[in-house]
Amino acid sequence: MSQLVEFPSEDGPVVVVVEGGPLTRGGGGESGVIHRAQRTFEEAVARVRPAVQGMVRQMLDVAEPPDEVTIAFGLDLRADVGGVIAAAGSSANFTVELTWRRPPGERPAASG
């Protein structure tokens, strides 16, 4: 059953998300009830940061690292656990784009 979940924000305003799929109106019952999350919005989103950072590190740890890495993924926000990477079935879905703009063999200039 879908429900609205209210996440407090560290900056003050709340973020309201739909948990459990599309939210439908009418019919009574629990649909549409607002639940307050135990974590802030920022804490919920931060739960996926280690996975994203790990993926970026792996994509950049190649002999010829790309100039750009783009990773797209779905994010579910849940009242009980916070942020989780959205999955269809039992596996997470990622779209990864790597971009090279340098000629092959040319290393980027050291930063700093």
Automatic annotation (TrEMBL):
Domain Trypsin-co-occurring: 8-102
Pfam families tied to this protein: Trypco1
Record-linked NCBIfam families: CU044_2847_fam
Protein name, per record: Trypsin-co-occurring domain-containing protein
